[in-house]
Amino acid sequence: MPSTGSQRAQDPLRHLYGILLVALLALNLAGCDQGEQSDRIVIRFPHVTAPGTPKGRGADAFRTLVAERLGDQVSVEVFPSAQLMNDDDSLDALMFGEVQMIAISLSKLDRLTHDFQVFDLPFLFDDLEQVKRFQASDVGQELLATLSDKGILGLAYWHNGMKQFGGPHALRTPADGAGLNFRIQESDVLQAQVLAFGGIPQKMALAEVYQALQTGAIDAQENTWSNNYSQKFFEVQPVFTETRHGYLGYLVAVNQEFWNGLPAEVRNELNAALAEVTVQVNREAESINQAAREQIEASGQSQIVGLTEAELEEWRNTMRPVWTEFEGLIAPGIVDAARGSASAAEGR
């Protein structure tokens, strides 16, 4: 049965438990920082992906660069693979100041604002270059401050890659996905996307997907090659259909009160380090995904199926109503700016 609304609204006790756990972890970690390191600024940076993914590499590169430049003043503590908390809890923890920095999937932000839903609209972007062009535009940069009234300051966008469909069989047409249980991130746009072709959306944390595929709790999912490889989904997903139908990226954000309270010279160095790492992450994202695709193919454990232009057009036509459903919720001008950035690449 499809999930509706926020999972958190359906399970308040689980959410409360998550918040209490985060608070206890933060207090415990804070106690470890007492004494000899008491003057050092600590930036706790949890994320849910594996270290070898674009986000994982970016977080580690940021930690390394900060250690080189501000080692006596600032310590960045990275917690990959949901070791400390999942994406949803990290967003709450950031707002409460229990962690200082996150790189959260843009899809997870729709419970706070509709504006980031633009990134989930299916077939809006063909590739990462089009995404990069929009994110660098005035509208894309203005989006970074959208959550400032909630105590969250966006600093940068990090790419993961374009998404493909995984399933029990090739999804050459929308009809091939009808009736399948699809894992999605906690996004109403992604829910509507699956419903558009008759699938059954299941909102689920990334860490739960492997077992859900293994046990048959879900049949299918969408993800980038880097996540499909690093999470080992290819071991339990018979077929991947190469659709490039959506974008998966992250908002690198900080607790605004913490950030504004830093000494100006420290904040400037951190900004410079993050800008340098962002260029590196976004430059390498495509090659990381391509390497992951090749490794999945070489494993022989999953089949990768390509689509014809006619088959892709059928998918586009089926998902087009999702745009109509959500375009009115997103602030005026954002979708047009994104479409303009995408069209500029091909002069269309």
Please trace the helix and strand order, writing H or E for each element: HHEHEHEHHEEHEHEHEHHEHH
Percent of residues in helices comes to 40-55%
Number of strand elements: 9
Average pLDDT, all residues: 91
Structural class: alpha/beta
Portion in strands = 15-25%
The domain tally reads: 1
CA gyration radius, whole angstroms: 20 Å
Biggest beta-sheet profile: 7 strands, mixed
* Molecular shape: globular
The top-level CATH class is Alpha Beta
Uncertain spans:
1-14, 31-36
Described by its quaternary structure, the protein is single chain
Terminus-to-terminus distance? 40 Å
Structural summary, described in words:
The chain has 348 residues and is α/β, with parallel strands linked by helices. The chain has a single domain, classed as Bacterial extracellular solute-binding protein, family 7 (D-Maltodextrin-Binding Protein, domain 2, 3-Layer(aba) Sandwich). 46% of the residues lie in helices and 19% in strands. α7 (188-196) links the parallel β5 (181-184) and β6. The longest helix is centred in the last third of the chain and has 36 residues, at 264-299. The model is unreliable at 1-14 and 31-36 (pLDDT under 50).
